[in-house]
Amino acid sequence: MSETERVVVILVKPQLGENIGMVARAMANFGLTELRLVEPRDGWPSEKARASASGADWVIDGARLYDTAEEAVADLGIVYATTARPREMSKPILTPHEAAVALSDRLASGEKAGLMFGGERSGLDNDDVALCDAIIQIPTNPDFASLNLAQSVLLLGYEFFRQTNERGGRPRKAELPPVAAKADMMRLFEHLEGELDEAGFLFPPEKRPVMVRNLRTIFLKAGLTDQEVRSLRGVIRALSTRRQGGGQGNG
Questions:
Q1: What is the dihedral of CA 240, 126, 6, 189, to 10 degrees?
Q2: Long-range CB contact pairs, 53-58, < 8 A, 24+
Q3: What angle in degrees, to the nearest 10, is found between the helix axes of 96-108 and 149-167?
Q4: Sign of the four-CA dihedral 140, 146, 67, 59
Q5: Beta bridge partners of 37
Q6: Is residue 225 within 8 Å of 179, Cβ to Cβ?
Q7: Which part of the chain is the tRNA/rRNA methyltransferase SpoU type domain (predicted)?
Q8: Do residues 75 and 183 make contact, with C-beta atoms less than 8 angstroms apart?
């Protein structure tokens, strides 16, 4: 599997089958093969998508359907969100080129990474972005910044394809341990948030969603490994046991 084939394109609530097909064509142009769809408005499979793919049938045929963005990224360690809107989250903001460079060594070592795109009308919501490790913003003319879905995928696909070719035979940096899959991170978040609810920390209720997103962002920015996630869950269990009166005192 080539490096570009390890880049997974995730479309969250895309609307038109024609646009999905044009995304598939853009992916095929630059060697991206894995397409994941979350709640496509017009259903799936789509003959309009196939017609618009202009022969990129292998991308259309291999597309996988998911009920939620969380399920679509569960097996991925690193996911970048593409959005032009400012967000009240402290996440790294990268250009397409910076994103391709940042992921280069991880892709070369065999890891897969996701690029998440929102629907044509409203893009990604905050909960979708909160699942991601960084935000990609495409520099455009501020007087006319609108890009359609396929254009965005095309630009990112080009940068990842170019980065792969420019690497050539250059050696990778020191081997990086794989980051934990998003499914394991979600279990960590649910564990931590459950204990914080019990302790009364996530209060008042109307502020809970923002507090949760901010906490998740802290851990996602750390790029935790499987072992680090297991260690943190052990810490949470120990603190919970002590809070509930089951731990040993200091004498």
A1: 0
A2: 53/21, 53/22, 53/24, 53/25, 53/28, 54/21, 54/25, 55/25, 55/28, 56/21, 56/24, 56/25, 56/27, 56/28, 58/28, 58/33
A3: 50
A4: negative
A5: 11, 65
A6: yes
A7: 7-157
A8: yes
| Residue in 191, 80, 168, 82 with CA at minimum distance from that of residue 131 | 80
pLDDT, one tens digit per residue, over 188-240 is 999 999 999 999 999 999 999 999 999 999 999 999 999 999 999 999 999 98
What's the per-residue H, E or C state across the chain? CCCHHHEEEEEECCCCHHHHHHHHHHHHHCCCCEEEEECCCCCCCCHHHHHHCCCCHHHHHHCEEECCHHHHCCCCCEEEEECCCCCCCCCCEECHHHHHHHHHHHHHCCCCEEEEECECCCECCHHHHHCCCEEECCCCCCCCCCCCHHHHHHHHHHHHHHHHHHHCCCCCCCCCCCECCHHHHHHHHHHHHHHHHHHCCCCCHHHHHHHHHHHHHHHHHCCCEHHHHHHHHHHHHHHHHHHCCCCCCCC
Give the tens place of pLDDT for each residue, 93-147.
999 999 999 998 888 888 999 999 999 888 899 999 999 999 999 999 989 988 9
Q: Check: CB of residue 126 under 8 Å from CB of residue 89.
A: yes
